[in-house]
Design goal:
heterodimer, A: about 325 residues, mainly alpha, two-stranded antiparallel ribbon, 2 strands, elongated, B: about 325 residues, 20 helices, annexin (chain B), Annexin_repeat_CS (chain B), acetylation (chain B), Annexin repeat (chain B)
Chain lengths: ~325, ~325
């Protein structure tokens, strides 16, 4: 048998995201002892030659890597089967536990879900953790972001189509002034937090339009030093763009362990919302020149890939 | 316990609607008939009567009542007839408007209704006023009042009985520190009051009392009694821990024509009759040595008096 090709396809099967289960069965499964030895000798990233004792040791990395890549499908399935409310409640809890670097998840959940879905997540939080989401966040987050995060998760926004444009305009002015003035950071300004955490998304769209006209610059161009505030704005105003960006980040070859996990989260939490999913697909295509489906096909392997593609096709 | 008395054989909603329609017809209005029906039906029954009335006579019962009745009696009947969530939404809207401003109403609604009821109030508010309660409260308040009221109306409190004793101790300490420093609108102070469950808060405040010798409201009274924010803060705490006491106070002030909450009597009776009016009556008697219905009879008259007294459970079903 042509050994080098086998090695290549075997290595290929366990590199990148997900694992090619079928390839593993047909190559590794069917392999003889000697072939595996040759494979271990050849795979310097996964095995280390102990010359003195004449055997090839596993790198920790090998075991960990496989565990992680095998678990992607596992996690996607568990998350998918779960009730969306529980899913979101657990995401918020996990983010809280992880600390400041994960608070973007709290922003994502509170700003991109519908009012009923966010309320549902808060109900699930009561049931799962015996306390309210807001009390947990309020007691664990200190500093300038507390008011914003508590306000965002406590929101139960109006979702109808009535909007007072002059109110949106005057609030755009307030926001413009807040951004321009020095002193207190934008995210700490009461009026900014009030507007972002209580107004309907439609009102905010109107405000966005007025802000850009007044200021001559884009509200979504990074008006605050707080990345959480900037993210909240993006999630509230252009969720499809937000999701496209984080999907791209998760599929990037230099993505770190945490970022790669975003892929599962976005797919699983958005797949049931066909309209939104279609918007995300369109936005992604516009931004990056290929379709999400193509990208998944190229970059992901095995059951994980098939599962993602199936979720993606629900909105076709 | 509710004070509402409903007959054991409730007439069909069709019959009730017909009687009500008769009460409006011809010269004048038969107020006694209106009271004898509406004051003896629970929320579900009143809702049915409204649907049937609208289907049969092509008019909203509330509109008919508005045309026929007036003054305090009208307000009492209207508020009573509304479904509880709609009623609270109406009261909340009224309380944010300039000339009828009343922050106590918001405190009552946010602190004495169960969490899921409060959600229904918000839904009713959005349906009727095409905006959210939170955005209106946020827009119409500022400074310390907003700092307190906005999280209060936004919160979705956990309603379990679990209490974390260590947490109660540490948060009682925080509260005491802030009270000693007179930092009554401190972030942590407000955080504790506006996010913790009622059970947890109860434990915290008990601990406060045991550890520091005074109930927190006593400490909050040491400032001059003119401070609106502090008055509201005390009302928040009372509503969260001992609502009957708060409602007794509102009733007492309203009946004795003290303070500015003139509609307090109507509001408390119509909003608590189906909830805990019996307890409020006991509290009132305890505190004022006169039964509530007698105090109301002394202070009010006519149809308005009859309506209130009927809701309190006196008179026949």
């Amino acid at each position: 048998m042509a050994l080098p090709l086998e090695f290549e396809s075997l290595t290929e099967a366990i590199s990148g995201m997900g694992v090619d289960e079928n390839a593993l069965i047909s190559t590794l499964g069917k392999s003889q002892k000697e072939h595996r030895k040759l494979f271990r000798k050849a795979s310097k990233s996964f095995f280390v030659e102990d010359e003195e004792r004449a055997f090839e040791k596993c790198h920790d990395h090998f075991v960990r890597h496989l565990k992680l890549e095998f678990s992607r499908f596992n996690n996607a399935v568990v998350m998918w089967a779960m009730h969306p409310w529980e899913r979101d409640a657990r995401l918020v809890k996990k983010a809280l536990k992880k600390g400041e670097e994960a608070y973007n998840l709290i922003v994502e959940v509170s700003c991109t879900r519908s009012a009923e879905d966010l309320l549902g997540a808060r109900k699930a939080y009561h049931s799962l953790f015996d306390q309210s989401m807001e009390e947990d966040i309020a007691s664990h987050v200190h500093g300038p972001h507390r008011k914003l995060l508590v306000g965002l998760v406590s929101a139960y926004r109006y979702e109808g189509n009535k909007v007072k444009d002059d109110s949106a305009k005057s609030e755009a002015k307030i926001l413009a002034e807040a951004v321009a003035s020095s002193g207190e950071e934008v995210v700490e300004k009461d009026e900014v937090v009030r507007i972002l955490t209580t107004r309907s998304k439609l009102h905010l769209q109107h405000l966005y339009k007025h802000f850009n006209e007044i200021k001559g610059s884009d509200l979504l161009g990074g008006v605050s030093q707080s990345s959480l505030l900037n993210e909240a704005l993006l999630c509230l105003l252009k969720p499809a763009l937000y999701f496209s960006k984080i999907l791209d980040a998760s599929l990037n070859k230099d993505a770190d362990k945490t970022t790669k996990k975003w892929l599962t989260r976005v797919f699983v939490t958005r797949a049931d919302h066909s309209d939104e999913m279609n918007e995300i697909k369109e936005e992604y295509n516009n931004l990056f020149g290929e379709t999400l489906a193509q990208r998944i096909q190229e970059k992901i392997k095995g059951n994980y890939r098939d599962f993602l593609l199936t979720l993606l096709s629900k909105s076709d | 316990m509710a004070s509402l008395k409903v007959p054991s054989n409730v007439p069909r909603p069709e019959d009730d609607a017909e009687q009500l329609h008769k009460a409006f017809s011809g010269w004048g209005t038969n107020e006694k008939l209106i009271i004898s029906i509406l004051a003896h039906r629970n929320a579900a029954q009143r809702s049915l009567i409204r649907s049937v009335y609208a289907a049969t006579y092509n008019e909203d019962l509330l509109k008919a009542l508005d045309k026929e009745l007036s003054s305090d009696f009208e307000r009492a009947v209207m508020l009573w007839t509304l479904d509880p969530a709609e009623r609270d939404a109406y009261l909340a809207k009224e309380s944010t408007k300039m000339f009828t401003k009343n922050n106590w109403v918001l405190v009552e609604i946010a602190c004495t209704r169960p969490a899921l009821e409060l959600i229904k109030v918000k839904q009713a508010y959005q349906a009727r006023y095409k905006k959210s309660l939170e955005e209106d409260v946020a827009q119409h308040t500022s400074g310390d009042l907003r700092k307190l009221l906005l999280p209060l109306v936004s919160t979705f409190r956990y309603e379990g009985d679990d209490v974390n004793t260590m947490l109660a101790r540490s948060e009682a300490k925080i509260l005491h520190e802030k009270v000693s420093e007179k930092s009554y609108s401190d972030d942590d102070f407000i955080r504790i009051l506006t996010t913790r469950s009622k059970a947890q808060l109860g434990a915290t405040l008990n601990h406060y009392n045991n550890e520091y010798g005074n109930a927190i409201n006593k400490n909050l009274k040491e400032e001059s009694d003119d401070n609106d924010y502090l008055k509201l803060l005390r009302a928040v705490i009372t509503c969260l821990t001992y609502p009957e006491k708060h409602f007794e106070k509102v009733l007492r002030l309203s009946i004795n024509k003290m303070g500015t909450d003139e509609w307090g009597l109507t509001r408390v009776v119509t909003t608590r009759t189906e909830v805990d009016m019996e307890r409020i009556k006991e509290e009132y008697q305890r505190r004022n040595s006169i039964p509530l219905d007698r105090a109301i009879a002394k202070d009010t008259s006519g149809d308005y008096e009859d309506m209130l007294v009927a809701l309190l459970g006196h008179g026949d079903a």
